């Protein structure tokens, strides 16, 4: 059976849909074999949601799917994963051409089973952890953001509130008489059992109102009062010192309170951080300002960073096991410590956004979009399991979550990548766009033979509390014909996997070595499939994707910080292939008098004084008016009769740019500028990226060039791949 879904609805995209019959040949393709899997990708139709239990193979526990062979006469079916025959359940015995269950329909390679109705589901839980170490102006901006955030939360959601600075303040949000604030030392951490005792917390199942986590409809007035009366940290700051900020202890406490209150269902911690962690567990900066916050050049020698990473990694594993995701929102000109906090966010499937101030429009919009667009469609307590044909196994996953013990013996013992040695992963916070990079290996097969994988995602729908099981089944063909292999190649998925692999290796290997491995991979790919760098439709984007991948700040270390590189890595590792490509290669569109909108090459030649250019990046959208267009606009020529075409391109460029920005999460920075203005630097950087400068000795297959421009890069690739 042949099935193919449009990318809009297809939750799984393989780098290679046709692979060589031998493992040795697969190892020389240059691009990793695997898939990018988006568990909660939008379904094509409501008929894919099934309100009954799935039919399981008694041998391998695979679930019946469109690739299954049905034998109505013997009332049996053959599982495509293990090739074993099994009896059909009674509800399948009346199958014929006019009566095909949805899960067997060729177009339904993904279906979702509603497998558990929770009669008393716990509503969404949000626990705010708020940094009060800031100036009066910043503090007021933060309070405004918190009030906006509360307005986006559904009334049935349960909400808690902690503020922190030198100390931790746990606020009562539900009370009968006078509300209290419980104060804790910012240098200590407490277990869930200790917090139960100190705060007299009752698990929510007892029916006794909880003073620290309550429904928003009951606590909204109190929360508004708490925010209104929230003051900056009152403790004096000695001259030459940084403020004491106990971010690590505060997050640890929020996790403990949720564990004590909801020991099974968990919740979301929302952290608002305004500066470096200087106090208590997880500290990554010294109090004395004379001691600089760690930078990329010295971070490997930072004892504080080493200890902080260990603290947040352990907290991430604990939070994951308790179904608690941690989301991190930072606003500061200084490093806030996301480099150290990133293992916690990644392990729990949280989101993050980093800005310079609490009034930044893109930061505010990201928070609003999270609660209005993302949270209502998200899942929690997700368990992702992979199974498949005996020809294949999984070498690991790079994305988010933690590894669970294996369940299907579908994992590789020798080859390991990312979260490996298993075929199951646990992800607490799963958004619609969260994508996992799953790396596969082949044991070899017969030419023309198909092999299959099946991905199961069991999750609790965050809003309703119902448990769903999403099942996706896909096929890969064995084919030694190079043309067939190339036809089944997906360049966006391939580069997404290659990029994840490079970012995974950069943690333990030198940049020079990682870049040389990337270069060797692409040269190997081109020698086999595009000699002399002669690319076809399936590979035309490869040179540009690699050119920009090599120039990511994760690898160049130029004009970046540990927090920013951690943010890029954390973001890239959960993007689907299309967004991965956009993060690497921006899209440049030209708006010109008398002509249709046209996509332009990322080159200095695309700059013209009579054009409007719209640059769409993953984290930024730039509208730049050419010098002449800006002059005409400033003279209001576009408002004069006969110049409607000028008015049209001015309005259309802005409208299109806003539409691009509106679709994204996190919300991108939106910039409107003129040619030669200071803000036009964002456009110039994209069309003329800085060259990769590495001092260490390069390999023979290195794609480094003296000029560093794209044309020289392609020439070098063409030379090496002959």
From TrEMBL:
GO terms for molecular function: GTPase activator activity; zinc ion binding. This is Protein transport protein SEC23. GO terms for biological process: COPII-coated vesicle cargo loading; intracellular protein transport. Residues 490-580 form the Sec23/Sec24 helical domain. It comes from the Eukaryota. GO terms for cellular component: COPII vesicle coat; endoplasmic reticulum exit site; endoplasmic reticulum membrane. The lineage of its organism: Eukaryota, Metamonada, Parabasalia, Trichomonadida, Trichomonadidae. It holds the Pfam family Sec23_helical. It is a peripheral membrane protein. Belongs to the SEC23/SEC24 family. SEC23 subfamily. It comes from Trichomonas vaginalis (strain ATCC PRA-98 / G3). Residues 379-478 form the Sec23/Sec24 beta-sandwich domain. Its main location: membrane. Component of the coat protein complex II (COPII) which promotes the formation of transport vesicles from the endoplasmic reticulum (ER). The coat has two main functions, the physical deformation of the endoplasmic reticulum membrane into vesicles and the selection of cargo molecules. Keywords: Cytoplasm, Cytoplasmic vesicle, Endoplasmic reticulum, ER-Golgi transport, Membrane, Metal-binding, Protein transport, Transport, Zinc. Residues 54-92 form the Zinc finger Sec23/Sec24-type domain. Residues 121-361 form the Sec23/Sec24 trunk domain. It is found in: Cytoplasmic vesicle, COPII-coated vesicle membrane; Endoplasmic reticulum membrane.
